Amino acid sequence: MKISNYRKYRLLEMIPGTLVWTTLILVILFSIIKPLWMVYAAIVFDLYWLLRVLYFITYLTFSWRQFRRQRAIDWMSQVKKLENWKDYYHLIFLPTLDEEPEVLRHTFDALVAGTYPTNKMVVILAGEERELQHFNEVAKLMKQEYGDKFYDFLVTIHPSDIPGEIAAKGANLNWAGHRVKEYVDTKGWDYAKLITSSFDIDTVVDPQYFAYLTNSYATHPNPTRASYQPLALYNNNVWESPSFTRVVANSTTFWLMAELARPKPLWTFSSHAMSFKALVDVGFWQADIVTEDSRIFLQCFIYYDGDYDVVPMYIPVSMDTAHAGKLSLTIKNLYKQQRRWAWGIEHFPFMVWHFWKAEKLPRRRWHLLFNLGEGMYSWSTAPILITVLGYLPLYMASDIEKATVVAQNAPAILQVLMSIAMVGIFASAILNVYMLPQNIPGNRFAKIGLVLLQWILLPIVLIIFGSIPAIDAQTRLLRGKYLGFYTTKKVRN
Questions:
Q1: CA-wise closest residue to 302 among 229, 363, 371, 361
Q2: Residue 227, strand partner residues
Q3: CATH number given to 75-323
Q4: Which residues form the Glycosyltransferase 2-like domain (predicted)?
């Protein structure tokens, strides 16, 4: 009996969740029936994660040095040394749903305040028909306040209920992209000279962002075959946010910061840039998925037979944490945000499906697949396993097994390994202070002290807002209960 393509794809979707649940069940089962085995496993596992932490610190340190070095350069003066820099235009996509004007003003003010000339920017404010009245009011206000500050200010409205789409940011961007192509064609512009930034609506760019991006693009040997990934900070509302929210946000920053140092498996994430030519070639962002920000890299990688990379940019863009005003809403916001990010596991079946058939793709496609699969697997299991393996086997062991040398020394060994691994938390806490906004409200020393102490929450946060939403996402994919796009509410005091 021949298996349909639908069933084959569903089987691929079931693999990640099956691996996660098999791992968790077997760990609990063997902790009961073979606790001494699991004590050995705990020591090996913690040693492995100690090496991972040291590996992480190495790349984080490199990226930090690059970050400090690159921000000290006057990038606009570097751009002006390029003979053809005036040939480039920036297309800036700002998809929005129901955000209030003050959120958009923060974004637009940063664009205007940058070192790069705004008459080389075309802003695309992309709204949704399902929030039409609110969007029309906000778009009218933004165009009145900022419309004359750019080369052009375009407004697009994504229709509701287009067949084959889901209500998500990618669908909005896809619609806006096609409308902008029509606009660009009337101008007769060269697609390769249009540098396109896709931003979350709360993205506040560094003053040197567009100068840095232009220089990176113009000096790249093949600029249309690359995406450009800046460093994501979450400083917009950092002082309004609860400590656990800041820890999750900053953990994301440091993860991406370490990833920037190893560009080969680097993916696009959240706000990023690329050429308009590549977007046109692949048909713009996919309209039927949640995680369009990373899928666009895969679309290009496959379309260009692997001749596509992501260039690390050691320049920051800042966004909001998941703070929603009230504590209960913030917890809900943060959980759903992390689950949406973990829904990036939807790339796994897509990659296997396309990579298996594409003979022209280079061998590094399997490196990309492993990078995604291992990362998502570790995200969902590692924090829980470190906790369970550290205690459950010893609790379940018999008196005879507890009397063995290994069992008696295991707690001390695990404590030493975890104490050394704490270096990673300490390094993150110190770097966190240096990456905060300079204008610290209230008592400066008290706030900095709180930022340092908040990292004590990391082990708990990694389970509640790391493993659990990741398991949730992979279980949904396993069951075919596909996740919709949850828009994190932006709240500013």
A1: 361
A2: 274, 310
A3: 3.90.550.10
A4: 200-412
